[in-house]
Amino acid sequence: MEQTNGLDVPNSSSAASCFERKRTRGKTIGLKWVKKRKEEKTKPGVEMPKDLQRAVGTNAQQFITETAQIVRQHAPLNVEKWSKIPLHSIDRMVKTVHEKFTLPNQTYVLGVIIHQLRSHFNSWRYDLHRFHYKKYKTDEQRRAHCPSDIDPDQWNWLINYWSDPKFKKMSEVNKENRSKQTMLARVGTKSIARNLTEMRKDLEENEQENNEISEQPEYMRLWEKVRKKKDGTWVDTNAKEKYKEMENLHTTQMQEKGEDILTTREAYTIVLGHRSRYVRGMGPGPEPLENGGLRGQRLRAQIQAEIEVEMTARIQEEVEARMAQKESEVQARIEQREAEAEARLAQKEARLEQMEAQMRAVMQHLSKIGMPLSSQPTSASR
Q1: Are residues 262 and 292 in the same domain?
Q2: Of 67, 176, 177, 188, which sits 20 to 30 A from 97 (CA to CA)?
Q3: Helix or strand or coil: residue 58?
Q4: Strands 2-4 and 7-9
Q5: Would you tell me how many other CB atoms lie within 10 Å of the CB of residue 279?
Q6: Same domain, 59 and 207
Q7: Handedness of CA 28, 31, 32, 34 (dihedral sign)
Q8: Residue 358 placed within a domain
Q9: What domain range includes position 293?
Q10: In 10 A of CB 140, how many CB atoms?
């Protein structure tokens, strides 16, 4: 038996059986997006507004799809949960994301990326457990039906982990907690953040075309959009009651201040209460790094180190550029002075040659008229 992360993993017939099955389609590598990127010859940009801290806009779906592929290509499965993944593996995934997309140059973007990767990791594990592990009654059957795109050793590790009584007990507790949730959304696969972004753009276009400004605040319009069914009814009585509280809040704002300037974040915090990890009613966002314990500290240290490296590089580039400019200016001044000196010297030499020519002409004239020439200098010349 081979041990990995404290769990026994068979390494003989059970693992070998995974190789004996018929080869089928392998991991998705995103050829569609590769082709699109080659045609456009540029990295797609992704919007990540600071107030939403989620991928939104035109290329949001491509970002979501490709980050899911990155997780399946690089994330190890033989760990208990996301927080147990080695940091070097997370670093590699984050680096790959940056290589594929143009992202805002802001510190919070790292949290957005990690949130998206973690979400994909959890969904991937959930699907494996639901559609592959629970499909069979015994571990022997499960080992004989290893998913085609999963490493056999890691699949065996997962089987051992999910079969452990501790995991089963924890799973039942989580299931019970989920049954107590009162806030149900009807947004499908599109996040609340993306719905809000599209709603804002539609409202802006409508205002420009029709010159009409909506009297209903954003937080009420968003609540209706994500808490109502297609037939216009509320998803549950709690959603309807919270909407009435928002109506009362809006009325109070108009009566006391003459206008409602509350942001959606502020209004939802007042009506729905506070959660430490995200704003209730706006969907899960990135986990604040200050709540991440030792892992959060390491991520903050990583961010700080990256900033310091970038600043050092920028300072070095700036110093080198200034030095090169100064050297160029000094060299230009030297060359200018040398040129001026050469010009002055040439002028002096020309004047001397002119004076010598004049002197020779005078001597020749005096010689012709018979005037004796003294070889001794005169007193005047002395």
Answers
A1: no
A2: 188
A3: coil
A4: antiparallel
A5: 20
A6: no
A7: positive
A8: no
A9: 288-353
A10: 13
Q: How far is CA 207 from the centre of its chain?
A: 32
Same domain assignment for residues 77 and 113? yes
**Number of neighbouring beta carbons within 10 Å of residue 147:** 17
The answer for 211, left when phi > 0, alpha when psi is -120 to 50, beta otherwise, is: left
pTM of the entire structure?
0.62
| Residue 52 bridge partners (DSSP) | none
**Each residue of 253-290: pLDDT tens digit?**
899 888 888 888 888 888 887 665 666 777 765 444 44
Matching residue, tokens 């700080």? 304
pLDDT digit string, tens, across residues 132-151: 999 999 999 999 999 999 99
- Read off the tokens for 269: 């915090």
Cα separation, 7 vs 86, whole angstroms: 17
Give me the amino acid identity at 257.
Answer: K
Which amino acid type is present at position 29? I
Residue 281 lies in a domain: no
Burial 164-190 (b: 16+ CB within 10 A, else e): eeeeeeeeeeeeeeeeeeeeebeeeee
CA distance 352 to 372: 25
Alpha-carbon distance of 322 to 337, in angstroms, equals 22
Number of structural domains (the chain) is 3
Side chain identity, residue 218: E
Name the strand (E) or helix (H) holding 300: helix 293-368
**232 phi-psi bin (left φ>0, alpha ψ -120 to 50, beta other):** left
The answer as to whether 165 is a domain residue is yes
β-partners of residue 228 are 234
Report whether 78 contacts 153 (CB < 8 A): yes
Q: Average pLDDT for consecutive 10-residue bins of the chain (382 residues)?
A: 44 46 52 74 88 88 93 95 93 94 91 92 95 95 94 96 93 83 67 84 78 81 88 89 93 89 84 69 55 53 64 78 87 90 89 88 80 54 44
Contact 145, 131 (CB under 8 A): no
